[in-house]
Specification:
With about 500 residues, this protein is mainly β. It has helices at about 15-35, 75-85, 100-110, 120-125, 295-300, 320-325, 325-330, and strands spanning about 110-115, 130-135, 140-145, 150-155, 160-165, 170-175, 180-185, 190-195, 205, 215-220, 225-230, 235-240, 250-255, 260-265, 270-275, 280-285, 340-345, 355-365, 370-375, 380-390, 405-415, 425, 430-435, 440-445, 460-465, 465-470, 475-480, 490-495, 500-505.
Length: about 500
């Protein structure tokens, strides 16, 4: 069922039009509240500029108004176009006057498995390790345990193509560079580039890692592909100069026990998680330089504790990172202040006296926070934790004087599927977290209204709120992903099934 055409005549409440009317009533209420908050009696809240992208509002749900989201042929198309404009690609600054949450909360909480969910044969494809949508939401790619990559139309659930023997071992991760070019990585130690316009063969294969390749990132500014593997290496690949034989590459960074690597949306930081519970942050990132580091344990031991007074509380400012870099890391004296390294031990609830492993690492789509899935060394407990970035002087006391991340929210997870990594994800607007939870997924929010993280950071660490749990698999769910353009969610499990979820009216 297309997300632009909601409706289910089998729903006990009636046909799809009834669900649309209910949402229209909520939208009308929100508009009335918005007008009250934007009145002269509330000068601190600005009315959104109607020329701003995503800032226009419909005058009527069915009048075919000229707003940016209401050019479709039907009320349903108009409704979802408007909702998408409210939540996708809005930039880092959000005007509270138009951030009413009840509509999105109802949409998210009504997520249900689509009747035409994709079913993959376990015997043919094996477990689903990763899901990735193209930036325009037109293609859903599936990384499979048994060497194959599958492509689907996520709206119609139609199978597009199977990349048979895409690699010689498990396919671990998929990353789109743009709407047509994407990269895959594998336990066969290689990375492959593919073009959606010509899927009969790879664009090229990249060789450089010595062990399983687990992660792919892409810097849109420099057009550098960044990969990490269990060999501990982070390697950059210059896609500006790729040929059929590959492209130039160099080792950017090395550390032991590397698990996951991510770039912030603006590519100003690189975060690396490890199986020994450390989180490494490279500030003021410059991928054109290499940082030769033999052991992060030595760096951590040499790093002086941060002051708990003044502007240094809980974090170093950009200036202090630059000015004191050679003192904190004497062996780096004389090098550029770019790529300054910070080694942290994030606080884990209930794990103060026990080791832990950071198995999954994601970043907020606006770069406000990092999302970690952590397990105990005994592998008997798991948590999902959200850490706020604290740049400069934080507005509230930190948990630890050594940590520039502050634990804001957490929740304990189902301890099933031991030994497998469960990949979480943020919704495109950053309001929701989808977490693999046993044989299903659950949607988690920062507060009861599915609010923006920036609007509901608690004074003390708080529990994530469960919006909805859906159990639609017959095996442990390993990965999940929100569509960047549709109100849709996908999840994949150990037995090879992919389930699609969308609002149910």
């Amino acid at each position: 069922m297309s997300s632009g055409q909601p409706g289910d005549n089998n729903h006990p409440e009636g046909p799809g039009a009834r669900g649309v009317r209910e949402l229209e009533e909520v939208i009308q209420e929100e508009e009335e509240e918005e007008e009250v908050r934007s009145s002269p009696s509330s000068p601190e809240i600005r009315r959104p500029d109607p020329q701003t992208k995503g800032g226009s509002r419909p005058e009527s749900a069915g009048d075919g108004a000229s707003g940016s989201g209401f050019r479709g042929p039907s009320v349903c198309d108009s409704l979802f176009s408007w909702l998408r404009n409210r939540t996708v690609r809005r930039g880092p600054f959000v005007d509270p006057a138009r951030d009413n949450f009840r509509t999105m909360t109802r949409l998210y909480s009504s997520m249900s498995p689509a009747a035409d969910s994709v079913n993959l044969s376990t015997q043919t494809h094996g477990a689903v390790f990763n899901l990735e949508y193209s930036p325009d939401g037109s293609v859903l790619t599936v990384a499979c345990e048994q060497t194959e990559v599958l492509l689907f139309d996520p709206v119609s659930s139609r199978h597009i193509k199977t990349l048979v023997e895409a690699h010689e071992d498990c396919v671990n991760n998929i990353r789109f560079l743009d709407n047509r070019l994407f990269a895959t990585c594998s336990d066969d130690t290689t990375i492959a580039l593919w073009d959606l316009r010509k899927l009969n063969s790879k664009v090229c294969s990249l060789h450089g890692h010595a062990s399983w390749v687990k992660n792919i990132e892409y810097d849109t500014h420099t057009r550098l592909l960044v990969t990490s593997g269990f060999d501990g290496n982070v390697i950059t690949w210059d896609t500006n100069r790729f040929t059929e034989d590959g492209c130039p590459h160099k080792k950017f960074f090395h550390t032991r026990y590397l698990m996951r690597m991510r770039l912030t949306p603006d590519c100003s930081k690189m975060l690396i998680s490890t199986s020994s519970g450390y989180l490494l942050i490279l500030h003021d990132l410059d991928l054109t330089q290499s940082l030769e580091v033999g052991s992060y344990r030595i760096l951590r031991a040499r790093r002086p504790p941060l002051s708990t007074e003044g502007s240094s509380t809980g974090s170093r400012t950009a200036g202090s990172r630059h000015g004191n870099d050679s003192k904190a890391h004497p062996h780096r004296e004389g090098l550029s202040p770019r790529n300054s390294l910070e080694v942290l031990t994030p606080e884990i609830p209930g794990e103060r006296d026990r080791g832990n492993c950071i198995t999954s690492l994601q970043l907020h789509p606006k770069g406000w926070a990092t999302l970690l899935r952590c397990s105990s060394n005994m592998d008997d407990q798991e948590w999902t934790c959200v850490y706020e970035f604290q740049e400069g002087a934080p507005p509230r006391p930190p948990v630890s004087p050594r940590c520039s991340l502050r634990l804001t929210h957490y929740i304990e997870e189902a301890n099933v599927g031991r030994g497998y990594i469960k990949e979480l994800c943020f919704s495109p607007d950053g309001r929701l977290i989808c977490s693999p939870y046993g044989y299903g997924v659950r949607l988690l929010a920062f507060d009861e209204r599915c609010g923006e993280l920036a609007d509901c950071v608690p004074a003390r660490t708080a529990l994530l709120r469960e919006v909805r749990s859906v159990f639609s698999h017959s095996d442990v769910v390993l990965t999940s992903k929100f569509s960047p353009t549709h109100c849709q969610l996908a999840s994949g499990c150990l037995s090879g099934r992919v389930a699609l979820y969308q609002p149910h009216f």
